[in-house]
């Protein structure tokens, strides 16, 4: 996470190419990072690199003019390619492109390789049908939830050395003893190059995380209880016909309520109407903004915190699991923005915006709601706490007190113990 995996991998491909291994090389990366990969290839290597992505028509153009060598009669020359390295996305691999399966790849580099953690995922199945001589996996979080996920990566790399999941789990499934941990570490050491931030940058600015517990507002408490009791009559107030909240996934509805009640269908109209009745007439012009802020404990806190951060000259990243929650935060920020103010807040979805991008201009990170997988939150924090960051980084994690969200965070935090026991002690 910000330790130079991209440049190190590119330098490796340049080195083996200079030693006579002519490729072709394949790089598979998230869509949001392929522009960065292309730029770094151009900066650090002399390899002829193409990006293979886009519509069918654009890919056909790439095949026609950039991929294959032809003889004097315009016929394709088998095994002769114009490019040295090809950058593509996971989506292209999943779309089952036959033109990529036909190529004998000397080496594949897979960025954010923890996407392969599910042994039965379609991505792994697609990769197994490709001719990949050597494999390099890049990830800052190889061990996220269980040892089964680690086996999936190892089996992909060395299927002959790790043929049986049952045998692997028999040896390492529970990791109850120090002997088991040491044996697993001995297996991993020859296959893994692991770096920590302090190994690469001795003077990296520190990171401090503060957990802030917020209270549910009265509006949130009423909705929270109604969701727990499955009180459809209460939840339907303010909701249009056919717009009653679906409580099939009660836990998700509780998470929505903890973030902002407007995420519950029909709640906005009900809350605005109640606030209008409680205020003297005529209603103030900022009634909608008052209702937006007052109805959510996290937004009440954010409304006090952001002005102080801006006055201190900080730039802020706000991460949330829910795109609709980011939409609500965007509405709030638009209404609060002064005409002469500069943008200092960047809203990102934790999983989409937490991979492969460098945002060291920011020095403050707000985790609006936590992920079930704590590694995703660490990935998000690493967007600003990485090599090149000259300021101390402050992380604020917002958690609703005495709620499902608090219990979820406590359980998710236990997952970090597996990573700490196996990898951090290597």
TrEMBL record:
Hydrolase as UniProt keyword: yes
Keywords: Hydrolase
Source species of the chain: Lanius ludovicianus
SUPFAM superfamilies: P-loop containing nucleoside triphosphate hydrolases (SSF52540)
Helicase ATP-binding domain residues: 1-160
PROSITE patterns: HELICASE_ATP_BIND_1 (PS51192), HELICASE_CTER (PS51194)
Xref: CDD domains: SF2_C_SNF
Lineage, uppermost ranks: Eukaryota, Metazoa, Chordata, Craniata, Vertebrata
Boundaries of every Helicase C-terminal domain copy: 267-426
The keyword Hydrolase is annotated on this UniProt entry: yes
Protein name: CHD8 protein
Superkingdom of the source species: Eukaryota
Molecular function via GO: ATP binding; hydrolase activity
């Amino acid at each position: 996470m910000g330790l130079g995996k991209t440049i190190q991998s590119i330098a490796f491909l340049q080195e083996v190419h200079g030693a006579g291994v002519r490729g072709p090389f394949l790089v598979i990366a998230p869509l949001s990072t392929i522009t960065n990969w292309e730029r770094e290839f151009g900066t650090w290597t002399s390899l002829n690199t193409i990006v293979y992505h886009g519509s069918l028509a654009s890919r056909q153009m790439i095949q026609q003019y950039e991929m294959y060598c032809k003889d004097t009669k315009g016929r394709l020359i088998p095994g002769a390619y114009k490019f040295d390295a090809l950058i593509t996305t996971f989506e292209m691999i999943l779309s089952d492109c036959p033109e990529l399966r036909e190529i004998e790849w000397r080496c594949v580099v897979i960025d954010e390789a923890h996407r392969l953690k599910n042994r039965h995922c379609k991505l792994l199945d697609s990769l197994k049908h490709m001719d990949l001589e050597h494999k390099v996996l890049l990830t800052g979080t190889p061990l996220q939830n269980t040892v089964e996920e680690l086996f999936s990566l190892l089996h992909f790399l060395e299927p002959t050395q790790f043929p049986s999941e049952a045998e692997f789990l028999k040896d390492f499934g529970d990791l109850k003893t120090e002997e088991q941990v040491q044996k697993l570490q001995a297996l991993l050491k020859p296959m893994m190059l692991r770096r920590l931030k302090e190994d690469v940058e001795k003077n990296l600015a520190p990171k401090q995380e503060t957990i802030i517990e917020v209270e549910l507002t009265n509006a949130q408490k009423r909705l929270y209880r109604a969701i727990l009791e499955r009180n459809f009559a209460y939840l339907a107030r303010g909701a249009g016909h056919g717009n009653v909240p679906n409580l099939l996934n009660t836990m998700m509805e509780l998470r929505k309520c903890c973030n902002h009640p407007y995420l519950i269908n029909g709640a906005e109209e009900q809350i605005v109407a109640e606030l209008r009745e409680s205020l003297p007439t005529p209603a103030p012009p900022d009634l909608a903004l008052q209702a937006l802020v007052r109805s959510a404990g996290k937004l009440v806190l954010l409304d006090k915190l952001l002005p102080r951060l801006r006055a201190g000259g900080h730039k802020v990243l706000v991460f949330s699991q829910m795109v609709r929650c980011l939409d609500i935060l965007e509405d709030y920020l638009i209404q609060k923005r002064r005409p002469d103010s500069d943008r200092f807040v960047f809203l990102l979805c934790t999983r989409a915006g937490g991979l492969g991008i460098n945002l060291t201009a920011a020095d403050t990170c707000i985790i609006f709601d936590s992920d079930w997988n704590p590694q995703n939150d660490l990935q998000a924090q690493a967007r600003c706490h990485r090599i090149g960051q000259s300021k101390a980084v402050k992380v604020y994690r917002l958690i609703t007190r005495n709620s499902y969200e608090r219990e979820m965070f406590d359980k998710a935090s236990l997952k970090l113990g597996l990573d700490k026991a196996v990898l951090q002690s290597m």
